[in-house]
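> run fold Formate dehydrogenase subunit alpha
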Amino acid sequence: GSQRVDKKVDSVCPFCGVGCLVTYNVKDNKIVSVDGRDGPANHSRLCVKGRFGFDYAHSPQRLTVPLIRKSGVAKDPEALQHLNRDSADWSEVFREASWEEALALSAGSLKYLRDTHGKKSLAGFGSAKGSNEEAYLFQKLVRTGFGSNNVDHCTRLCHASSVAALLEGVGSGAVSNQVNDVAHSDLIFIIGSNPTANHPVAATWMKNAAKRGAKIVLADPRITDIGKYAWRTLQFKADTDVAMLNALIYTVIDEGLTDRDFIEKRASNFEALRENVKGYSPEAMAPICGIPAQTLREVAREFARARGAMILWGMGVSQHVHGTDNARCLIALSTVTGQIGKPGSGLHPLRGQNNVQGASDAGLIPMMYPNYQRVTDKAAHAWFEDFWKMPLDDQPGYTVVEIMHKALAPDSDPHKVRGMYIMGENPAMSDPDLNHARHALASLEHLVVQDIFMTETAWLADVVLPATAWPEKTGTVSNTDRMVQLGQQAIDPPGEARPDLWIIQQLATRMGLDWNYPGEHAGVAAVYEEMRQAMHAVISGISWERLQRESSVTYPCLSADDPGAPTVFMDRFDTDDGRVKLVPADIIPANERPDADYPFVLITGRQLEHWHTGSMTRRATVLDAIEPMATASLCGADLQALGLAAGDVVTVQSRRGEVAIHVRRDDGTPQGAVFIPFAYYEAAANLMTNAALDPFGKIPEFKYCAVAIRRG
Ligand code: SF4
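> ok
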């Protein structure tokens, strides 16, 4: 724009996994506007969040001083239900402290718990909103300082099941093809995803492809905006993914549409898959999934015959107790049709957070070191013990929801979790069954929370450390397309807030670790270079200097002149034998089905203007103005049957909790279901959700539980 600014600083949008490159326009240490930069994922495009969602960084509610819980003030998880995030006064609960006192208290308490109760008594949640360098150092602190692998982050709530299926099937959890490769697709199969709201700039590539003539298929119980561009919409009954997908695979095999050569050369276990889908004809599955057999056959034919057919999916696939099975079916569909390993095809689990790909790559997960090397693998274990010069636990740690259970375990449990370090995540809003999760957090003997706002989780802390917002730091993030992208510090943090990377190091050295990362921005370049060594198999060609020069480099990238690989699996898969391992899946019902008392299905998710638990976007004035209020979406028929009109207030209640919320009419929501975004503290959807887990990915069933709806 023409507005006079002091400086323009290049960075990356802090919200979704699309990874749009931005330029912050800064005046008097304040961001005054944001421009889209010509990055490989966005070509200067931005959505409303990227363009207008920046002034949360300047919110008067920012934490600016370390805080310590006042002695005698109990942790009250029940109070969170009635807490007003915007007006609550934390001075009655916390007192201000110096950095020295706060760090010494937390490090000392965690050390005491570790030395008294053993290494498994501590756990850490890092963040997919932080940089790769923060994720890497955080997991290194937990593994070498806390002494166990009890480290996880919100990937567990997001694509953990997709990654479990992908690691098993194709040997790599990352996407095979980048989003804008849909430019080379004849068919774009979108399932369990609302890209217009959740990956808005990615959605524009899909819409542009449709304009060119590509056929979009939207498969989702809830029909959203992208459905307007679809050649076919498959509004299948919630929870019947496996039935519908197996029917597509059945059709491909039944009608002789398989890519025999591809299966022969590049897949294993096809016979077992073929045997298994025999019971899943479209005719038999139509009454189960609610899609006419003829439509299923049409879609299967078009998918198989396309020169390129790409599958993109979201949490609608992953957040089920059968999430891994859902993803196994998608892998099988791509494989039997030969729609993978070439441009315009492949498998793309759309990553949610801006750095959920990178944080997982960097090892912020309990079963794997950086670059998905299993902690149980003897060679990997030995390599990291040597690399970090510390003894390491060779058993996987607990996952997000398991850690909450372990916090409430009896005293006699040797693995009871008693102390936690939570950096930049808000499990008191984002975990399933919040009443349980909040009690678990409140029961900890020591909880240190590092964040930019007094989150619901921070309210339950012993120590709260004020951290830096994304525009206040320099670091890298990796987007859904496997692009490692550099953001530069644009503004100074407020008050005494400090870089997260600095805080992690301060706690580490106070817990006795001998760390030294010299250089500006808390040694970010030195941390990156150490991480690059730990992940040499995928990013050895991406040096810090190269990132400064190019802003964005796609991995795998193995040498300084390697341009990176936008499409992978062209010749072989990353499995041991180089082939896709096909894994048959059968129907497993949701953990909790509707019944007479709780007749509706609750579907949770996101919306365009607000990001996850809303701690940033609801403090961004423009976004808050556009979408100020929590709403529950119901179709017109259900509103009428319940005698409701849009704008009425209802109570939505599950066996675990309830919220009062305004209703909104949305005819894309199926009859018998209610959709509620989880961004609103005043009507926290996760009070109601079910913590039942997928056995492979350990992801909770956010997308399906039973609720009742009543007026008022
Ligand atoms: Fe940011 Fe995602 Fe919007 Fe791009 S599409 S501007 S990365 S929120």
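The CA atoms of residues 163 and 173 lie 5 Å apart.
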